[in-house]
Amino acid sequence: MMDKLAMNKPSMGKNSTQHKQAFDEPLWWGLFSAGGVCFAVFLPAVILFIAVLLPLGLLPAEALSYERASTLLFSVPGFLFVGAVVCLPLFHAAHRLRHGMFDISVGNDALNKKLMYGGAALLSIVALGLVVAGMLG
Amino acid sequence: MNTEQINAKNVSTKHISVKRYMPDSSAEPYWQQYELPVDDSTSLLDALNHIKEQLDSTLSYRWSCRMAICGSCGVMVNGIPKLGCKTFLRDYEGEIRIEPLSHFPVQRDLVVDMAIFLEHLAAVKPYLIDDNPVKPYDPQAPETYQQSPEQLARYKQFANCINCGLCYSACPQFGLNPEFLGPAALTLAHRYNLDSRDHGKKQRMAELNRHEGVWSCTFVGFCSKVCPKHVDPAAAVNQGKVEAAKHTLIALFKG
């Protein structure tokens, strides 16, 4: 048993596939972190404006009239806004779901990864595509 | 001294249930209850020693220093990983259930096999690696290992690990996948990466940036809660994620 622990064994010759670098993980983790920040910073403001102030009539009536809202959305800032409050949080949620499924031993991680991040990517493309279509149309 | 007064006033009887496992006589683990006198100063390790000496000499457990520095008396107390010598029975009401550390194979009673933990420790090369090409090793050079207090402060907290393994018992990810390098090993890797005298970061990053390295951590944070030396492995592992991400970016651009 003890000889297995030899500290000076030349870099664990077992097999090199075990030492495969996880080059994709920093990307998922980066999107997860960015999504978390956007969740925390932008969504409360969005909820305050759209779900509280607007229904209570505390904003000017035409603040989010159809014309104004569509001009705001179908623009470069609108594109960035959708990226920040829809796409990044989608990847945040996908990351949590993937790890949550691993925690309760549902499916296998390689497949879950494809499903979750693939789903987030697909929905992101739909969301951003709608904005681009609106800008062009 | 008034210690005797306090002790005399607070002597009481407590029940301790210990999960016994003796593969020689029974294939299945079973619970055994002991009744023993305790006072305000009785630690769990004192209680186990009392059982071993006075009640039942067949009980097996590890211990050595009695002062939370050797890291050998880790057990589960009511489901929470604790050091026996740092846990006092005065803090527990009712039944106290003692089990061997979770997520490790049990050898006998409270004794677990920590081989996999030691393998993970060895894998991250937790020692100073000095292969600085600019300043080759010279035993005569007096300033080889000089370090300022600021440089020491960067890693000092992460250097307090006593390898007790409580964080591995607390970590649900290690429970799910024993190949995960785990809190203590990743913390020690980070500790040496932060050390100004060390030049082994590149070698360690190859271990840290695997799926079984920092990326298996989901920041549960229980490791930092149970750590008896306040090392905060959760912080170290998540700083390790930032380092691994930087390492990957640099590798991408360097090709």
UniProtKB/TrEMBL annotation, chain A:
GO terms for biological process: fumarate metabolic process. Keywords: Cell membrane, Membrane, Oxidoreductase, Transmembrane, Transmembrane helix. Signal peptide: none annotated. One of its GO terms (molecular function) is succinate dehydrogenase (quinone) activity. The chain crosses the membrane at residues 27-54, 74-94, 115-136. InterPro entries: Fumarate_red_D, SQR/QFR_C/D. SUPFAM superfamilies: Fumarate reductase respiratory complex transmembrane subunits. Gene3D superfamilies: Fumarate reductase/succinate dehydrogenase, transmembrane subunit. GO terms for cellular component: membrane. Its EC number is 1.3.5.1. This is Fumarate reductase subunit FrdD.
UniProtKB/TrEMBL annotation, chain B:
Pfam families: Fer2_3, Fer4_8. It is an enzyme of class 1 (oxidoreductase). Its EC number is 1.3.5.1. One of its GO terms (molecular function) is 3 iron, 4 sulfur cluster binding. Pathway: Carbohydrate metabolism; tricarboxylic acid cycle; fumarate from succinate (bacterial route): step 1/1. Residues 16-104 form the 2Fe-2S ferredoxin-type domain. Binds 1 [4Fe-4S] cluster. Binds 1 [2Fe-2S] cluster. Its cofactor is [4Fe-4S] cluster; [2Fe-2S] cluster; [3Fe-4S] cluster. It comes from Vreelandella sp. SM1641. This is Fumarate reductase iron-sulfur subunit. Residues 151-181 form the 4Fe-4S ferredoxin-type domain. Keywords: 2Fe-2S, 3Fe-4S, 4Fe-4S, Iron, Iron-sulfur, Metal-binding, Tricarboxylic acid cycle. GO terms for biological process: respiratory electron transport chain; tricarboxylic acid cycle. Belongs to the succinate dehydrogenase/fumarate reductase iron-sulfur protein family. It catalyses: a menaquinone + succinate = a menaquinol + fumarate. It comes from the Bacteria.
